[in-house]
Amino acid sequence: MSTLQVSIYRYNPETDDAPYMQEFQVDTQGRDLMVLNVIQMIKEQDSTLAYRRSCREGVCGSDGVNMNGKNGLTCVTPISEVTKGNKLVLRPLPGLPVVRDLVVDMSMFYKQYERIQPYLQNDAAEPAIERLQSPEDRDKLDGLYECILCACCSTSCPSFWWNPDKFVGPAGLLQAYRFLADSRDTATKERLSSLDDPFSVFRCRGIMNCVNVCPKGLNPTRAIGKIREMLLSNAT
Amino acid sequence: MSNMRSMSFDAIIIGGGGSGLRAGLELAKSGKKTAVLSKVFPTRSHTVSAQGGITCAIASADPNDDWRWHMYDTVKGSDYIGDQDAIEYMCQEGPKAVFELEHMGLPFSRFDNGRIYQRPFGGQSKDFGKGGQAARTCAAADRTGHALLHTLYQNNLKNNTVFLDEWYAVDLIRNASNDVVGVIAICIETGETVQINSKATVLATGGAGRIYSSTTNALINTGDGIGMALRAGFPVQDIEMWQFHPTGIYGAGCLVTEGCRGEGGYLINKDGERFMERYAPNAKDLASRDVVARAMVQELLEGRGCGENGDHVMLKLDHLGEETLMKRLPGIVDLSKTFAHVDPVKDPIPVVPTCHYMMGGIPTNVHGQALSVDEDGNDTIINGLYACGEVACVSVHGGNRLGGNSLLDLVVFGRAAGMFIESALNEGIEYMSPSQSDIDNAMARLNRWNDSKQGEGEEIPVLRKELQEVMQNNFGVFRKEEYMQDGVEKLANLRERIGKAYLPDKSNTFNTARVEALELDNLLEVAEATAIAALERRESRGAHSREDYPKRDDENWLKHSIYYPNNKTLGKRDVNFSPVSVETFEPKERTY
Amino acid sequence: MVTNITNLGRSGVSDWLIQRASAVILALYTIFMVAFFLFHPNLDYVAWSSLFDRTWMKIFTLLALLSIAAHAWIGLWIVSTDYIKKSCVRLGVQTAVILALFAFVIWGVQVLWGA
Fold it and tell me: Which residue intervals define the domain FAD-dependent oxidoreductase 2 FAD-binding in the entry (chain B) (predicted)?
């Protein structure tokens, strides 16, 4: 049997009073398609289905969706990895307002990203060539700069669900540490003092949902731990 | 539509990829009232998928490296229809643009001395082709595009650039004297249609690889800028020149960077033979992309392909060792596990030439000003319209782009356009306001879709698929008159059907069906221009390879092709052979 | 930087540090008490009262009491900011918690040093 049962969260504010789940059947012809392929096949049946997608290879971060209860990118998740008993349940990323169907309003997520000043700050004059950086110092950025801002982590984090306006969230904090760890950045003190409150960093309770879902295999919890260490050594 | 809201800017940049963000940054710094409009959140743009690096003579791997050598390679790679003044500008300004990126925070990989890591890429040489393989591509592991795009976005945030994220540009607004004075755009989230007035409209909409069914390009690469320009009656240049990247993952189409071969990987056929040694004895697997792609297809045609159907070859990387692969090509290891179910540490990756890059585009000068050609063959400037990045044809890539030159193109010409627009705005720009009928013209196709009725036309996915198959089958790596003739006819038929196609979903909130409908129009414009230009260029040059005209014809075709949309004809435009500070590189036979 | 006035340490690091330090003290106190009960299977009032007559025990107990207060203040403050979104209700709960903890500490001091 190669018919996949797909249940998708539907909501169009213009026509629906409340969200509902809609059932679709997709003939996969026995292939282990990516979830995105399945969604595209459904879109051909029902063009009103709204979802985001762009690169279809896991680097742009458009298509974060909750698949059978776990956040991930639809384009790099084979159905065999998420389906249970031939059933696929697709919902928008949890914790953010739904715009339509699988599309969520990410402005709160982006706001937290912007809050950590995600750009290099260096008060020294720019040299005529590049700033030098040893391979060892550059290695410190590995596992940090690769973030694609898909929001899978932050929207799987209860602390972010409760306080999306105050807790920076795993994605933002991973980037905060990316600049704290960069040997070329000179704003360490200012960055730390802007994080030294009970919410921005310290709402992380270390449950590691973020690590569990990151489609790029990154570890925000570790980065948050490092920020905490820096805050502590800065304050004592 | 008198109740349509309008917004006004000094400059509106359409597209939030590398070139759009670089232009946006320049203009944001200048304090002009500008906005970057993008149909996706900027870091979702296709620049993010660039892997291998940004080619530039920053003299890191080789302290004696020279931008003139880079220029020589680029001219040769273009098969001599790259404009030498533009290539000179790009190669000479390049280091400045790359160092700027580094200062902005781009996390380049490093050599032990702390300088930016550079790797060898295809078509690179030292000393004007006489000094052997060069290593000139600056890299951040195999995620250079991602690192570059995010760095640019971050610096736009730093400089408070105004973003219109998830807005879709529908068509250019032209006034009575054919100046471009803005654009009609839709806010995708609310469905609101807005008239955007602007003194400078910059197209930075990227490529259109989605005209082919197999492409390395993102799903969003639908040639929106080319579509808008053609519908406005403006010509496009060298649009028949489509690069097929040698190493797209077989079946999935995802890109595997040329950096794999730069790091020492090579291609093998079903006998395990490193076949590029036969086709390019010197550069071997690092010959330029058109050469490698043709060699691969030749192998397949001669029955030496791999797999049951003999329809792909293999990229061998395992001999590089796990450590190098994880350090220099971690993204590739990931991608091939996901999409080819192959661990490159142990097994070779199945690959096939896949549509990758549009060398052609809107003709511009080095300042990003869009050009047209008048009846006497002289360049004329299209007031108010600018283009940069893949949508533009400056032309630095000519008939074939070298790997790593696209990212350089983005930042050099995004920056150049920004600087030029700033000074133009300072000098003062006044165009006539558009009349109601000018607005109506720009609204025409949106209204057509919104008024389309069920039962009167076909739906979008079917038409799109058919279009992509025509391009794939009739305008591939090797081209032939009869196939192309057939393709042109099929596209004419498709134009008729797409003109009557039906949009079932007319809702306002995040209506992606409407966006896909509008994109389909653009795909058609690009496809048809490509088809007609490819049919008319009766020679083989760069990526345009004809079985019926296998030789390069410098006598007749050492020229840019110019496609005029109004009467669907192809003209010619002179290639620039007058660089300012170096001697002209004269056309020679091209071997690697 | 998110500013707050009803949390104990006024900064995230100090709250974090206080919570961990107080947890350690409470753990030590718990281990001590469990051990005390194990070594005194037939515990009577005399033994119990003589334990608390010692000054170091009074100090240790007061420390544990203060640790409970601090730990609970921080913990309940976090819970209240997570789940109580209406600020007037939240402020009421926080005030009640702080007053109760204050009362417990004073009462504890009275028990320890009182008659």
Answer: 10-407
